[in-house]
Amino acid sequence: MALAWLIAAPLLWHSKVPGDLKLPHLDPHDYFSGSELTRTDHYERFLRIDSVLSFVATVIALLLLIWRAPRLARNTGLGPIGAGMIVGMVTIVVVWAANLPFAVAAHWWDQRYGLAHGPWIDWFLQPWAELGGKVVLVMLQIAVVMLFARRYPRNWWLPVTPIFVGLISLAIFVSPYVLALSVHPPQRPELRQDVQTLERREGISGTPVDVEKVSNMTTQANAFATGFGPTRRVVVWDTLLNGRFSRSEIRFVLAHEFGHVARGHLWKSIGWVALFGFPLAFALARITRRRGGLGDPGVLPYGFLVLLLLQVALTPAQNVVSRHDESEADWMALQTTRDPASGRGLFEKFSKEDLAQPDPPTWSYLFLETHPTSMQRIAMTEAWKDRQNP
Questions:
Q1: Sign of the dihedral through C-alpha 192, 196, 202, 207
Q2: Pick from 254, 261, 277: nearest CA to 176
Q3: Contact 250, 194 (CB under 8 A)
Q4: Strand 183-184 with 223-226, pairing
Q5: What percent of the chain has pLDDT above 70?
Q6: What are the backbone dihedrals phi and psi of residue 196, each rounded to the nearest 5 degrees, phi first?
Q7: pLDDT confidence of residue 388
Q8: pLDDT digits (tens, 9 = 90+) for 113-171
Q9: Per-residue model confidence as pLDDT tens digits over 28-79
Q10: Is the separation of the CB atoms in 265 and 324 below 8 Å?
Q11: What's the confidence (pLDDT) of residue 259?
């Protein structure tokens, strides 16, 4: 396991960002007004507290299930796998219910700040298809774990981890099909022209770009790369195209997402899943074995709790990897567009429009931020510009 890390991690970490690049220290007050900084701080502080309380509620719900699960498993009258499916489903529903008040609070907060709109019933119903897919995936994972844990109590994690990596890869591969009903090709001729130009420059011609309609639910702007191989594509939210962002800023967003594709970040993410997954599964197997192992359906809620805490412990490292890839995509966008002014303007607008705090607290940066801060991204545009004019 250690040898795999020594070999694979440097390959996955390799980046186009120069190793000697030094980001200048910038003062947020030079880029944002005092009222803007106060507004983003107030907005995100509530969401951070909400997130922590949601985590605490999840832990409490799992502790209650740990107490009740053995009796529930015995009373199902089913075999171990069948009982495990029942316990697993109950666990998912209880955890979802425990988190629902905090999801409602977060949506209410977004509405208060004008970032979300539309009827509450639409917000409640909209994610059900995606949630259903996740439930099916979790139930499948439970069945696989229990099957191997009963047959190989000590070493089930060895065959299970590659299976999970395969399932995650399959989910990424088919994700564009899930979006098919809510996206459409770009309508603007200038956007189609920019797509063709940027694809050619980054060497990924033929990567489709779709526009997803989300303006009926949110005002926040976003874009992302998804799929790989024949399903790879870039998806742009229609809120990015409603006139708030200039054509050059939209070009920068596209170049950033094409950078993810060109650098194979989704493929690399699967590699990182494997590197983190093996030690995570090993620890999960060893800790839960003290209570009888995950082959026992009554132990499943305990396994959920252990997995949750292990994932929290790994989150800072996983976020470092995510921010590393996002920084490389920013660098690719700068190299492709050669337009640091548009990059800087884009990152300033993201903070102002989406209320992303430019310089969040350290603990939030470690545990909650998957992207570089706005100030770090602005600093990269300045560093790139300085390297062009030494």
A1: positive
A2: 261
A3: yes
A4: unpaired
A5: 97
A6: -65, -40
A7: 87
A8: 999 988 888 788 776 656 666 778 788 889 999 999 999 999 999 999 999 999 899 98
A9: 999 999 999 999 999 999 999 999 999 999 999 999 999 999 898 888 878 8
A10: no
A11: 97
Give dist(CA 213, CA 314) in Å, integer.
34
Contact yes or no for 37/28 (Cβ under 8 A) = yes
Range list of H helices, 211-264? 247-262
d(CA 364, CA 368): 5
DSSP 328: H
Q: How far is CA 263 from the centre of its chain?
A: 18
Query: How far apart are the C-alpha atoms of 370 and 260, rounded to whole Å?
Result: 14
Which stretches does DSSP call E strand in the chain? 183-184, 209-212, 223-226, 233-237
What amino acid occupies position 160? V
CA distance 90 to 92: 5
Compute how many other C-beta atoms are within 10 angstroms of the C-beta atom of residue 225. 21
- Name 240's Cβ contacts closer than 8 Å, sequence gap at least 6: 221, 222, 223, 250, 253
Report phi then psi at 228, rounded to 5.
-155, 165
- Report how far residue 390's alpha carbon sits from residue 214's, in angstroms, rounded to the nearest whole number: 43
Which tens digit of pLDDT belongs to each residue from 171-200?
899 988 888 878 999 999 999 999 999 999
Q: Which residue has the tokens 């099916």?
A: 136
Q: How many CB atoms lie within 10 A of CB 384?
A: 20
Average pLDDT (231-258) is 96
Distance of alpha carbon 90 from the chain centroid: 25
- Contacts of residues 186-189 at CB distance under 8 Å and 24 or more positions apart, as own/partner, are 186/210, 186/211, 186/236, 187/211, 188/241
Contacts of 86 (CB under 8 A, 6+ apart): 72, 73, 76, 78, 297
Let me know: does 358 contact 364? Beta carbons within 8 Å: no
Q: Are 272 and 169 in contact (CB under 8 A)?
A: no
- CA 278 – CA 276 distance, rounded (Å): 6
Provide the pairing of β-strand 233-237 with 209-212: parallel
Alpha-carbon span 190 to 198, nearest angstrom: 12
Q: To the nearest 10°, the Cα dihedral for 44, 47, 48, 50?
A: 160
If you search the block for the tokens 């529903």, which residue do you land on? Answer: 93
How far is the C-alpha of 169 from the C-alpha of 165, rounded, in Å?
A: 6
